[in-house]
Write a structure and sequence with these properties.
The chain is built from four helices and four strands. With about 120 residues, it is an alpha+beta fold. A four-stranded antiparallel sheet has the order 2-3-1-4. This is Protein CutA homolog isoform X2.
């Protein structure tokens, strides 16, 4: 947490982007309605400023010792790295899967204007 705060402070002071300040969170959903419901809820809670809903990803995975196949909807959620834990906890509460797929990757670089827009979109009112 201290590392995240120091990254944010450096970013504000220098006006430059510090790698890892923002993350992309990946979440698979069983259908488009659940994906939209989760996307709207996390936008309302200011846990993200932007969610892409990618249709019909084919998934193969082990479940209870068997190989399963499913068609899922992928959410790409852009957020501050400092919000990933809260976002993941919320998704676990509302997601219908017993073990929802939730993982994140830090953003290495990004357009300064886009990143500023992300920050503003998650600002508490």
């Amino acid at each position: 947490m201290l590392r995240t705060l120091s990254q944010q402070l450096l970013s504000v002071v220098t006006g430059s982007y510090v790698s890892g300040t923002y993350s992309i969170v990946f979440v698979n959903c069983p259908n488009e309605q659940i994906a939209r419901d989760i996307a709207r809820a996390i936008l309302d809670k200011k846990l993200t400023a932007s969610v892409n809903i990618l249709p019909k990803a084919s998934s193969l995975y082990y479940w209870n010792g068997e190989i399963e196949e499913a068609t899922e909807i992928l959410l790409l959620i852009k957020t501050k790295t400092s919000k990933v834990h809260m976002l993941s906890s919320y998704i676990r509460l509302v997601h219908p899967f017993e073990i929802p797929e939730v993982f994140s990757l830090p953003m290495d670089q990004g357009d300064v204007h886009y990143l500023k827009w992300l920050e503003e979109g998650m600002a508490e009112e």
